Input
Amino acid sequence: YPAFERVPLHLLPPAVAERIAAGEVIERPASVVKELLENALDAVAQEIRIEVRGGGLRLIRVSDDGHGIPETELAQVCIRHTTSKIQNFEDLEHLHTLGFRGEALASIATISELTILSRASETEMDELMQPALWITWRGGEQIQRGHRARPHGTTITVSDLFYNVPVRLGYSKAARTENGHIIQLVRRYAIGYPGIRFTLRIDEHNAVQTSGSGDLATALTELYHLSLSGLLHDILATDEQHYRIHGIIGNRVLAQNSRQYITLFVNGRLIQSRAIQDALERAYRPLLPKGKHPLLSLFIDVPPEEIDVNIHPAKTEIHFLHEGLLKEALTAALKAVLERVPASALAPDSI
Ligand code: ADP
Ligand code: MG
Output
């Protein structure tokens, strides 16, 4: 190895520090889609449209009809730690938004070309086209701005992702792979928010389309193009105090070879939890053939002060205060449902 050459202790230039921090939040194109979706959901959008080209490296565009960003604030949203969602550390204990770190837009703007066009809803003219401000950042610098008419809401366009992060660009997989991650992500959000109309277009083709009916089973049918009637079973369990669990599990006929049909939301937040996954497997493993996983949409609601979401910048991991209790409740709830279902629909050797 070449000898390590120590440089004198110094503060990293802000642009370098920014680019390093950006790497923690934005791992791949799907991370951009996730952050933009979460912002649209926090803005109480009813309809969210996503457009992707070139596996997300060429273009990602998310448009919503949410409450928008006031013109006076637009120039600041790409400054790190700028947020309209919390005011002090204690607010994390009763968080009702998905965002709170104020890091996503700053990160994305640092490693791409980002344009935000937004109009805040304020008048009865909301639905009409009105002039709205747009600003473009590239590599973290504002490079252009202008006005364009639109109804209230926000459109964020990200192009040239990772143009100045050669390592990440090289690490990005084929467009097909990145598109696959994006489709899975958008499907899961559409499951989590069945009352919202989602459209995902990839290279001009519709990849996801939901009606926003508000009904979970309808959303699943729209997403998976499966005939699900009679094959889904409701899950419901609560101790009134620490948790409320609800959702849907598909029976054996719908069992899949991968976990991609398992969706877990905790307090409206899409979560990956090893602990929860273990509890789930313990419940369904005896009832499904080896290597099979159920179609399962699970929603867990707990008091906000009983989870810690501030573990990782991507916010997909959380800690539960009462993890043991929750795992037991989950296993029991799932078993109760699975045992109610006729054995013929679930027993490993019945079909
Ligand atoms: P955070 O979501 O943690 O606050 P972001 O960097 O994702 O941080 O966004 C910064 C701010 O920009 C948000 O707090 C919000 O005020 C504004 N914002 C971003 N996207 C939208 C959107 N789609 N609609 C309305 N406001 C938005
Ligand atoms: Mg955000």
Notes: The longest strand covers residues 141-150. The pocket of magnesium ion (ligand 2) is lined by residues 35, 38-39, 99, 104 (CB under 6 Å). Residues 55 and 177 are 8 Å apart (CA to CA).
